[in-house]
Amino acid sequence: GSNKSDINVRSVVSHMFADAVSSIGIVIVAVVIFYTGWTILDPLVSIAISAIILYWAFGILKESTRILLEMAPKGLNVDTISEDLKNNFKELVELYNIHFWTITPEILVFSAHILVSEDINTKSNQDTLLTKINEYLKEKYNIIESTIQVTSDIEVMKCNIE
Fold this sequence. Notes:
- The chain is α+β, with helices and mostly antiparallel strands.
- It has two domains: 3-68; 78-161, Alpha-Beta Plaits.
- The chain has helices at 7-36, 41-68, 78-88, 123-141, 153-161; strands at 92-104, 107-116, 143-152.
- Strand 2 (107-116), helix 4 (123-141) and strand 3 (143-152) form a beta-alpha-beta unit.
- The two termini are 47 Å apart.
C-alpha cells in the first residue's frame, strides 16, 4: 500500500500537525492575552485544540481497534464474498468455515473450506482452481493471503459414514 494509507504514517503526520496547530494556537493566544488581558482565551483555546486532536485521533484509534481485534474489513462481509465466489466458480459446490480478517489496512486474510464438484477430482485440477480463486480474491478484494482447503463429495461422504 501507499504511505498515505499506512496507519503508522497517518498517525505520525496527525501528531505532527496537532503539535504545529497547538504551538501556533498557544503563541497567538499568548500575544492576545499580553495585549488585552483576556485570560479566558487560554482555557478556551486549550479546549478547542484538545477537541480537534481528539477528533483526528478517533479515526486512527477506531481503525487500530479493528485491526487489533482482527475484525473483517469495513465494507466487506463473508456472505458477499462466498456468494461471489460461487457465482464466478461453478466448480464450487459450497464454502464453509469461512474466516476473513484484517492484519493491516493493506493486508486482508481469508480462509475457507470448499466443497468442489466431482469433476474436480485430481490434485492438478484442484490446484488450478485454487490458483484461480486466490488470484480472483487478490484482484477483486485485495486479499493478499488466503488459505483454502479443498474437499470433494467422496471425502465428505467418507466422513459422514465413519
